[in-house]
Design brief:
The protein is mainly beta. The chain contains one helix and nine strands. The strands form three sheets. It has a three-stranded parallel β-sheet, with no helix packed on it. It has a three-stranded parallel β-sheet with strand order 2-5-8, with no helix packed on it. The longest helix is centred in the last third of the chain and has 12 residues.
């Protein structure tokens, strides 16, 4: 997997599939994700938006359909910056 480290990325569309980001800062970016492998380690995002397409988009649609996610993305729970997956 490609690794990008120690970068500040401003106002760009960032396709995250197949990339591990380490110690990066995203400002005003639009993240696009289709369901592939990725990594985000010690990064921060300010004023960014998110686009899910392909397999990821279909997963979001399914979760909305069964009521796990609200239909309005503004009501989705925000994941805290310091959240880490369970070991």
């Amino acid at each position: 997997m490609k690794v990008l480290s120690d970068r500040t990325i401003r106002e760009q569309t960032v396709i995250i599939d197949g990339i591990e980001f380490r110690n990066c800062k995203f400002i005003g970016c639009r993240f696009s994700y289709s369901g592939g492998k990725f990594g985000i380690v010690d990064c921060a995002a300010e004023g960014c938006s998110y686009n899910f397409f392909g397999a990821a988009g279909r997963t979001i649609a399914f979760l909305r359909h069964i009521g796990v996610l609200p239909k309005d993305p503004d009501l989705w729970t925000v994941i805290p910056k310091d959240w880490k997956p369970p070991a």
